[in-house]
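EI: anyone free to look at a 419-residue chain?
SC: sure, send it
EI:
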Amino acid sequence: WTRQLTVFVCFIQAAFYVSSLTGASGDSSILTLSARGEYHTLFVLASIVVLTAGSCFLMWLGEQIDAYGIGNGVSLIITAGIISRMPDSIIYLAGISSVRANGAANVLGPGKILFLIACFVFVVAGSILLTQAQRRIKITQAKHMRGRRVYGGQNQYLPLRVNHAGVMPIIFASSLMIFPVMGINWLDQKLRASAPVIAASTLPGAPASPIPHSFLQDAMSFLHENLAGGTYLYEITFCAMIFFFSYFWNTVQFQPKEMATQLRDYGSFIPGLRPGKRTADYLENVMSRITYVGAAFLCIIAVVPTIITTSMLDNSPQAFQASQFFGGTGLLIVISVMLDFVNRIEASLVMRNYSGFLDDDKGSGGSPSRTKRGSGGPLMPGPLAPQPSAPRSTDRSQGLPAFDSPSYGPPAPAMGLRP
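SC: here you go
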């Protein structure tokens, strides 16, 4: 069902993408030219099929990486696409930092270049730190008797991630912010076009002027001017939606009551709290506090590219693409995928070389040593040590093993111990 839905979504998005391909003028889209006869309809259908087939091939390639590789295949493909844009961004920054042909001053001087490098290192290090950050809650396991032995009583930790939602709040917020902006722009254009005009004077040839705007027209004009990318109102709304989706994601994914029930069933408890409702309330309060920190971190990561684009760069599409390496969804996706990739490599190396931890002191790679470290004696010295096994020979007449060696040891001693 997931693969079939992927094909359906790819087909719809490919149709919108092909229709958005424009030429020099705004009315020369592929569908418009096809209606005029300049492009055949078969070309449009072939383009949609090619885009859908390419997406399906990437889906299949990601599944092959999942099956035979290390890490999430689709995430690795997305990460490779993001990192591949880094050389173009570096070339763009190097281009705008040089003196222009018209003799204008440097857009980026040495000080700004050093600041951008330091900002990049700081943002990447902070993203890694807060992506891996955890709030560890101490858990004590109850003691219980099994036979004559006592089990439990050990202290463990319950890790709660500070950024539990990951990059999903930014993706949801940026996706939903597109619709109100498009709706407000469309409504503002409709109101401007439908506004009637009256003559400013009764004299012949007097210029016409529109009637006073209504409250709705003024409100739509204000939102149209202040709800664009990079404006104060847009960024505040964007951050508010990031906070909302961070708490919404934790509400859906994090279940404190179920976690408290599992702790009680396994005989574990948080010191100073009763198992059950008190533990669930405590976990919910802790998660609410650390979610606030994680959401604030996501807001900073999401706003930094816009600040760099509007204040330090020339606010062009190339500038926005270059500033995405200083924050945003692309940086978080790359960091989270690369951290997961490194962890999987370490786990694979430990799994393949685990026998090395059990080798003897010489590290020959053979079977584990039967002697104590630092001593030449057996693991069980004394009278209870296992007796040397008797060399066996084969009775050629009957084909049965026979203990025909005179060095065969005495029978097992008392207490029922085998030789």
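EI: The first strand starts at residue 134 and ends at 141.
SC: 👍
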